[in-house]
Design a protein that fits this description.
The complex is a heterotrimer of chains A (274), B (222) and C (227). Chain A has a single domain, classed as Four Helix Bundle (Hemerythrin (Met), subunit A) (Up-down Bundle). Helix content of chain A is 76%, strand content 0%. Chain A has helices spanning 14-46, 60-87, 90-122, 130-151, 155-188, 202-234, 239-245, 251-264, 270-273. With 222 residues, chain B is mostly helical. Chain B has one domain (2-221). Chain C contains 8 helices and 9 strands. Chain C has a domain at 11-109 and 171-225: Rossmann fold (3-Layer(aba) Sandwich), CATH 3.40.50. In chain C, 31% of the residues lie in helices and 24% in strands. In chain C, strands 6-7-8-3-9 form a 5-stranded parallel sheet, sandwiched between helices. A 4-stranded antiparallel sheet of chain C has the order 2-1-4-5, with helices on one face. The chains are: A mainly alpha (274), B mainly alpha (222), C alpha/beta (227). Chain B binds chain C through residues 1, 3-4, 7-8, 11, 15, 18-19, 77-80, 82-89, 221-222, and chain C through 72-76, 94-95, 97-98, 100, 102, 104-113, 121-122, 124-127, 129.
Chain lengths: 274, 222, 227
């Protein structure tokens, strides 16, 4: 089918990706920093204190974005895993592998901030709250992915096994969330608190959105950087990688490398010829 | 197409029967883990009764996990797995047959034994029946999930521990529903919903997970 | 008493003869293989027709085993494609699969089972209904007469190898892919195996094999050099 030769494949060549990321990342860092500064300023100085929790609720401006990022990154990990398994695009595995540590970090931060938030509001750092518990399980899924990838001597094979695990995990995530929620409701009745109810002030919403943007952009930048390093280390002997390592990757070298990759990813056969 | 699978089923069961030791080890493991709970928590019947569903289910999940460690290992080491992958029938069906053989010989004994162990922890009457029913529906899902992990970690450093890390998080829904069903029965609440959901999970897992197992095996053999 | 007799092929093998394969049956195009990230070889290609023998040569680590695993569809090539009976080897149908037999380094002989059980199960798994007579006869001809009922763990390395090779005698497969089949075999068994291969070729079968040992006694092979 034509699926194997559509134009976006151009960016699946590590060399093209490297050059693109090289141009993008320098813009992402300051953008993330600006969003974070604005968001934190709004969150700490503009948003009014909560009438029940006082200032303690402000950790939500970090807790909520990290929790969302964690879930989103796991989903993205599984999508890249599926792309890698179906089309054997090496770049997809590189991206998935680059996402995992950031995803684990986000999930961990969300647990950490959840604990810090719990201390003043629930009087304890840890309760087996439905959302905390399912986030903890999400962290285990990230760790499993990373461990399986790392345990295999053959990066290609390890990547395929880990991608399959990510897909099985992603199919399971809704079931896990649902069952944990159910488990919690059966044992505890209603949730301990819902601070993100309808009573949020506009400035709170603005601060939250800014912080979400900051985390998105930060995650994008750090994942792209990690993927660049991974791309280089996978093809250390190629011309483009050596040129890129010293910062002199020419357009010409890039295109040659991309053509090479295209050849690699285009198996001969009925599909290729059709 | 069914005949080769029947051959495989028979072969696997007879191989496991020749190595009775394995069955005994897994069953003994199951019993010992449950014995640890009263020893750690204390002999008060009320306390034990509270933790009974969870204890039996956790022990069953762990026993399932350790028994699956070797599901594909022997066939992989002696080259049989290659022949299975090259056999005419789809590898997913082959994998399903292997999991069924494994469950019949190592999962079913746990289900049969569970009422006795539940009784020893203070469960009674209908609760014991619900416990066995929940295990009957739940342990095949555990076997299928564990088989994915076993296939993925073949020939990988630190296989067993790694497999636990990969697979135990995926056991969570089954554990919640299974132990939940018994809990409901203990409070004389309707437990049918839990069992139905377990059945639904099994119905979804049965056609889908063999595909994942076959995929993992192909990656290992590549 | 010569255990390795070479009497006429049994009817079970008739498949190879009746369904004779026209033209090129096994084709490889521009194969490139890797082990992990290490490139082994590229541009390997051949087409093998009925009655032809292909000998894959190369030093240790040149990728002979990888090539053979690629040819039978276990491994995926980095580039290129393998076709067997006109179908892509990675997604061929049941019939094409049945007509190919691979015996690798690891010979898939179960320690706990006897040679007879091993053979029966192997046939059962491939969906080949086998008669007990044919199976006993195959073991007899493979030189395992008298140890059909001894668990394989008590057999010698060579006897285990013969147990695996006995499959060749009753399989209806036309294509044999044999990875180092001579390992652990004594001289007589080698001569016997060569005869079987020659016979298979005569009946229109195809054989792909590797060997570090001398192959004098085999029909003139086509050579694929990986170095």
């Amino acid at each position: 089918m034509k699926g194997r030769s559509i134009p976006w494949l151009k960016f699946t060549a590590p060399a093209s990706f490297y050059a693109l990321a090289q141009r993008l990342v320098p813009w992402l860092w300051p953008a993330a920093a600006l969003c974070a500064i604005a968001g934190l300023y709004m969150g700490f100085f503009v948003a009014p204190p909560d009438h029940q929790q006082g200032d303690a609720y402000r950790i939500l401006f970090i807790h909520v974005p990290t929790a969302w990022m964690g879930m989103l990154l796991y989903l993205l990990l599984a999508v890249y895993g599926a792309i890698f398994l179906v089309w054997r695009i090496k770049m997809a595995d590189i991206m998935a592998r680059a996402i995992a540590p950031t995803g684990a970090l986000m999930t961990f931060l969300s647990l950490w901030t959840g604990a810090l938030w719990g201390a003043p509001t629930w009087g304890t750092f840890w309760v087996w709250d439905a959302r905390l518990t399912s986030t903890l399980i999400l962290l285990f899924l990230f760790l499993g992915y990373m461990a399986l990838h790392a345990a295999s001597d053959d990066r290609e094979k390890g990547g395929r096994a880990a991608s399959l695990l990510a897909i099985v995990g992603a199919v399971n995530v809704p079931i896990i969330y649902f069952s944990v929620e159910w488990w919690y409701n059966l044992h505890q009745g209603v949730s301990v608190m819902r601070s993100d109810g309808p009573s949020m002030a506009d400035s709170m919403v603005a601060a939250l959105l800014l912080m979400i943007a900051a985390f998105w952009i930060y995650a994008g930048a750090v994942v792209l950087r990690r993927a660049q390093v991974e791309a280089l280390s996978r093809e250390p002997r190629t011309e483009w990688a050596q040129a890129a390592a010293v910062g002199r990757l020419t357009r010409d070298q890039r295109q040659r490398a991309a053509a090479d990759t295209a050849l690699d990813q285009q198996p001969l056969g009925p599909e290729g010829e059709a | 197409m069914m005949r080769p699978l029947w051959t495989l089923l028979q072969r696997d069961i007879s191989l496991i029967v020749t190595r009775r030791q394995d069955v005994l080890t897994v069953v003994a493991f199951f019993v010992i883990v449950i014995t640890l709970f009263p020893l750690a928590i204390g002999p008060e019947p009320e306390k034990l009764r509270t933790i009974a569903p969870g204890a039996v289910w956790v022990a069953a999940a762990l026993a399932s996990l350790i028994s699956l460690d070797r599901l594909f290992a022997d066939d992989w080491r002696d080259g049989t797995l290659e022949q299975l992958a090259l056999a005419p029938q789809p590898l997913a069906l082959t994998a399903l047959a292997k999991v069924i053989a494994h469950w019949l010989s190592l999962g079913l004994p746990l289900v049969i034994l569970s009422p006795a162990l539940g009784y020893s922890l203070g469960l009674q009457g209908i609760e014991l029946a619900v416990l066995a029913a929940s295990l009957l529906l739940g342990t095949p899902i555990l076997s299928l999930l564990g088989a994915v992990g076993a296939a993925m970690t073949l020939g990988v450093r630190g296989g067993g521990a790694l497999m636990a890390l990969l697979i135990l998080p995926l056991y969570v829904p089954v554990l919640i529903l299974g132990a939940g069903a018994v809990n409901e029965a203990m409070f004389a609440a309707p437990y049918q919903a839990h069992l139905s959901l377990l059945g639904a999970l099994l119905a979804v897992a049965l056609p889908l997970l063999p595909l994942a197992i076959a995929g993992a095996l192909r990656i290992t053999l590549d | 008493m010569d255990a390795l007799s070479s009497d006429q092929p049994k009817p079970a093998r008739a498949g190879a003869r009746d369904q004779g394969v026209a033209g090129a049956a096994l084709e490889a195009e521009q194969l490139a293989c890797r082990r992990g990230e290490l490139p082994l070889f590229e541009g390997a290609g051949f087409s093998l027709g009925a009655g032809e023998l292909l000998l894959v040569r190369g030093r240790n680590g040149s990728g002979k085993t990888t090539l053979l695993r690629t040819l039978c569809g276990l491994s995926e090539p980095a580039r290129g494609q393998v076709r067997w009976l006109g179908q892509d080897i990675r997604r061929m149908d049941e019939r094409a699969q049945q007509r190919m037999l691979y015996i690798g380094h690891r010979d898939a002989v179960k320690d706990e089972l006897t040679p007879l059980e091993n053979l029966q199960i192997h046939q059962g798994l491939r969906g080949e209904g086998g008669a007990l007579d044919a199976q006993l006869d195959a073991l007899e001809r493979a030189g395992l007469g008298g140890c059909e009922d001894i668990p394989a763990r008590y057999l010698s390395q060579g006897q285990r190898r013969r147990t695996a090779l006995a499959r060749l005698l009753i399989s209806p497969a036309t294509l044999w892919i044999l990875d180092e089949p001579l390992t652990a075999l004594d001289q007589r068994a080698v001569a016997w195996l060569f005869e079987r291969i020659a016979e298979h070729l005569q009946h229109g079968g195809l054989v792909v094999t590797t060997s570090h040992q001398s192959i004098d006694g085999l029909p003139e092979p086509r050579i694929l050099d990986l170095d």
